[in-house]
Amino acid sequence: MAILEFDSVSKRYGQLQVTDTVSLSVSEGEALGIIGPNGAGKTTIFNLVAGTVLPDSGRIVFDGKDVTTLPARTRCHMGVGRSFQIPHPFVGMTTYENVLIGAAFGRQRSERESEAKAIEVLELTGLKRKANVLAGQLTLLERKRLEMARALASAPKLLLLDEIAGGLTEPECRDLVDAIKVVRRAGVSIIWIEHVVHALLAVVDRIAVIDFGKKIAEGDPHSVMASKDVAEIYMGIDGDVHA
Predict the structure, then answer these.
(1) Cβ partners under 8 Å of residue 103, min gap 6
(2) What CATH architecture applies to the domain 1-79+196-243?
């Protein structure tokens, strides 16, 4: 069963067509990767899924319900969780308090339920030992984990990850991939926008390629990355040149 159906969705800002009749779907428990050049429209797709912007045309169905015109808060309560490319934690609050906010406001829970959920997510993301550390004192990897943890605290059915591996060292990237695999095993569906392609290949079931607001390729990750069109458009490599 599809957890998300993103059907022929378009978004324009003035004369700029940011998303042009893009169609995507994600099944329950599946992980979809999205790649493309900067400015291709990838983050706009996330904004449309999350509800922070509304489409000009097309239809968005989440968990069997038409959410095309519903606001972001309602979609969050329904089970859409999102991390952002640049972490913006509440730096004067502890790691635990940051996650607790996600648990308390992402879903309607009692105080005790929110506290229990926050502790559960800290364990899931490997941040429990940093629970009482101020978020402003965390390393970049830990802030990336915290960004994911705050989204997970809302108990999402679908988790949107926006370039969460960017800026990490190779060992840090491997640690993050391991954490995302744990999230997958918990049954959460994932859409992951990422430029660190090897991280995507370690996690996702399919990859979609976006360029100038259009989907130009989709399918098995290794097959997509080996295609001539992707080499030319995304990698900037002449598809007729072979090593």
Answers:
(1) 109, 113, 114, 115, 117, 118, 121, 153, 154
(2) 3-Layer(aba) Sandwich (3.40)
Helix (H) / strand (E) element for 2: namely strand 2-13
Rg, Å, the chain Cα set: 18
Structure tokens at 82: 């999102």
pTM: 0.91
Q: Which helix (H) or strand (E) holds 77?
A: helix 72-78
pLDDT tens digits for 23-37?
999 999 999 999 999
Length of the chain: 243
Task: Record the tokens describing residue 206, joined without a space.
Answer: 């399919």
Q: Where are the beta strands (DSSP E) in 92-231?
A: 158-162, 189-193, 206-211, 214-219
Strands 158-162 and 80-82: parallel
Q: Chain-wide mean pLDDT for the chain?
A: 92
Contact (Cβ atoms closer than 8 angstroms) between residue 146 and residue 138? yes
List phi, psi (to 5°) of 33.
-100, 145
